[in-house]
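Lab notebook, bench 4. The sequencing result for the construct came back, and we need a structural model before the next group meeting so we can plan mutations. Quick request posted to the team channel:

Model the 3D structure of this chain.
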Amino acid sequence: MKLLLFLSVCVCACGALAQANADYDEEDGLPKVEVTDPRGHRPLARGREVYTPVAAPPPVSGRGRYGPRPTATTVRESQEEKKEIPDSGGCLHASETMGVLCPTGCELKTTLLKQERDVKPTVAQLKRDVESLSQTSNSVYKYVEDLTSEVTERQRINNGNEELVNKYTDDLEVQHAYVKETVDVTFPQNIKILQGVLEKLREKIQRLEKAVTAQREKCAEPCVVSCPIPVVSGKDCEDVFRNGGETSEMYLVRPESSQAPYKVYCDQTTQNGGWLLIQNRLDGSVDFGRRWDEYKRGFGNVAFDVGKGYCETPGEYWLGNDRISQVTKTGPTEVLIEMQDWTGTKTYAQYQQFTVQGEASNYILAVDKYSGTAGNTFLTGATELFGVNRTMTIHNGMMFSTYDRDNDRWVPGDPSKQCSREDGGGWWYNACHSANPNGRYYWGGPYTKNMAKHGTDDGIVWMNWKGSWYSLKAISMKIRPYFAQK
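Done. Here's the predicted structure in token form:
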């Protein structure tokens, strides 16, 4: 009995050793086992491991910022009562309900005119100073001439009192020489310098006048931009939709009155619209391997025009963690993640609750209430993994990480084990991911560890749909305030 038990233990141990050699040693002649985890630190078998959900702060819930949208009849009535807006379509809009205003681009005219007003009084004062100086020099020069005549006359009259006259004359001649040098040399030099300054000021004024004239000519017609922004705006894309912006394109939004408005792309057609695009990948034109501060501020191209006269096509961009956090913390927010493979097949993942905390918490992610067809990677991790290995791919409750700010759970403090550096972009990494929307862009879909920079699954991955070694053609993340639909 003991012998049989020993042999069974030996068989298990030897089998495990052979399995390990197959995973890490490609030259021992053993059949190679396909590894699910590209990093090779997750077991392949279920074993006795238990899947443990990650403890995470709850997302913002409660009453929404918006009630149900008005019915078609109400909308029609409001449109009939709508008043014409002055300068509609231009850069000055008197109606407060239409939101923030766009600049004209003609501020140069105002700036140049202000400079002109500041410079002209100075030049006029210099002119007066030069004229006063010229008059003073003429008076001094006449005074010197008079002194010279007086010296000559006194020399003729006072020959009898030579000693006294000579002494007086010497002093007078010294004064005369000093004054004459001042008048003949110093004053002309100063006047010449002032004249040079005046001439330069005249040239500058002429250049400014030419610039103002040119600007007036450019501003004779309304300013035309390559990507005009609609007049309508709002706190977010749902507010824009309710204000009448029902076409999908670039808009200005202003969530808080204390902050400046900024440009976003609003999807006003998907699931009845109101979606604010916070992330978009479609062609690899923008590098997402960015630093912490860039992910904080946002980067990329919001939208562009393909010939329709307005920016109806979203570009590749990240809205910015500060802005995402601000919008999602103001009330219940839902997120829609849409993706497409290289055959044109589309799928989606939607979370009814989505919140990103502020920078003080390193932008912790909190999601809940999944629906969709792509697979619930945020809450359950990669379904092809098991137990704790699956747990370490959950994104809910994770802090945001970039290659210069490591906040993941893969051996914290070890720079050689850093998810963002290996997987190509900033994200809510665990140890490391089951979804990697900000990863490196690979054309065609399938890629290999030899193509990857660090041999890891660093593509645009959604493991529960296409696995680790398929990089998606397109993926986008959109948010909107959650409200009860009628």
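DSSP finds eleven helices and 13 strands in the chain.
Will bring this to the meeting.
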